[in-house]
Amino acid sequence: MEAGWVQCGQDAREHRRGTNVQASEQAIRQVVQEVLAQLAARGSNGAASGRLGGAPSGNWGVFDTVDEAVKAAQAAFEQLSRASLEDRRRAIDIVKQICDSQAEELGRLEFEETKIGRLEHKIAKLQAIKTVPGVEFLRTDAVSGTHGLTVTEYAPFGVIGAITPVTHSLPTLAGNFVNMVAAGNTIVCNPHPSGAKIACEGVRRFNKAIFEATGLQNLVTIIGKPTIESAQAVFDHRGIKLLVVTGGPAVARAALQSPKRAIVAGPGNPPVVVDATADIENAAKSIVAGAAFDNNLLCIGEKEVFAVKEIFDQLMTAVGKHGGYRLNASQVAQFTAKAFGPPKEPGGHHVLNRDFIGKDAAWLAAQIGLSIPPETLILYGETDEQNPFVPEEQMMPFVPFVRANCSDHAIALAKKYEHGFGHTAIIHSHDVHTITKMGRLMNTTLFVKNGPCMAGLGLGGEGFLSFSIATPTGEGVTSPMTFTRQRRCVMVDDLRII
Questions:
Q1: Sign of CA dihedral 455, 156, 96, 103
Q2: What is the pLDDT of residue 58?
Q3: Superfamily holding 271-462
Q4: How far is residue 200's CA from residue 109's CA, in Å, rounded to a whole number?
Q5: Of 261, 202, 259, 254, residue with least CA distance to 230
Q6: Apex CA 374: angle with CA 369 and CA 375, to 5°?
Q7: For labeling, which of 103, 320, 336, 447 is most exposed (least CB within 10 Å)?
Q8: 290 vs 272: CA distance, rounded Å
Q9: Fold of the domain built from segment(s) 56-266+480-485
Q10: Residue pLDDT, tens place only, 274-328
Q11: If DSSP codes are grouped into helix, strand and coil, which group holds residue 296?
Q12: CA–CA separation, 23 and 19 (whole Å)
């Protein structure tokens, strides 16, 4: 009897053990199925590489402090380092697609926030992001010889600290994203406070779409409420390996004082020279198109014109036929007095009336009592070289025209008032000798012949687009290769093919 009870107890225990094992296996299968379903929903590409975690913390890359933003960007860099080039390409394509398909909405948001420029050009700048180069610009160099094989790769820096301007808040951020992420970096952005809302909105949309498609998180982070202090914190943070600054003289100087390597897109005051051999109609049309684009907010935009006396009056007439409204001498003087205050100290810069920056030509004209057609693209008038509009980067659609004695005189004036920034210069001429002479003397990053300034960035000319033109530090028109460092791999006495 006792043996029977023992056997029955053993049978019961075995039955319970079998039942428990079956239940455990069933529970495990259920958990695995749920995990697989979640991974599949978040993107098979990310699941295959084993990079996915939980949903991102924070507000899709928008953070309150620089420390938080850098920490998230560092984690993103480590994740991106394990990802494939295809992942980078997908992330970049998503940003380009958002900028293109949502350009009207995002452009309007930027225009409403910053209240400068022209709405149609805010939209056009976002649509142009699709022309910014990505991973296709990366390359690998190899040298093979008697002593083996050396391969030079172009590797990322890590987390890049970016300062972006109010003039092109979201386009600069998006363009930098394409270049920097293509090179394998992640970004911490401190935007200009007057363009912070649209920059943050762009970051949220970019990160959300990229995460849903690839599982990559926080490839770009941003300070939600940027200040001078947060910009300085970006400059000083040990987790940031490279600085990229796009802005005016003050922020450029601050970046150049940092012990970190800095790529600085500083100010410009692009001059235009028109000589006696120029196609006058094309010159007039080009000057208006460049100076009018986004109400002359572009750092490459035509800011002052030096035209030789033989064709000066003809050029002035032609500009009026292509969308310009000519001010007479009295009106120029009146407008100049409104646009600029006197220098704060002897020999200093005239003080720009910042309320005039990026406003429409008709609005500017109204400030001196003129009612002109709303479709007017620029104001212009003859000045001497002492007029503040000549030496100052004014960023509004008024262009001063200065009469030059000859082409050499015009080029000398262009050299003087470009201030050695090395940014952009433009000439309209069919004399190759004159063009060559000016190009050598100016030594600018962009030198445009017989076209509007935008041609220098692939918009109407050959080449590619960037919103960060690094003139003070010499990198020029930035591309993905700008944001890489060389990494050499050497195999001695093996793998040589010669």
A1: negative
A2: 62
A3: Aldehyde Dehydrogenase; Chain A, domain 2 (3.40.309.10)
A4: 11
A5: 254
A6: 140
A7: 320
A8: 11
A9: Aldehyde Dehydrogenase; Chain A, domain 1 (3.40.605)
A10: 999 999 999 999 999 999 999 999 999 999 999 999 999 999 999 999 999 999 9
A11: helix
A12: 6
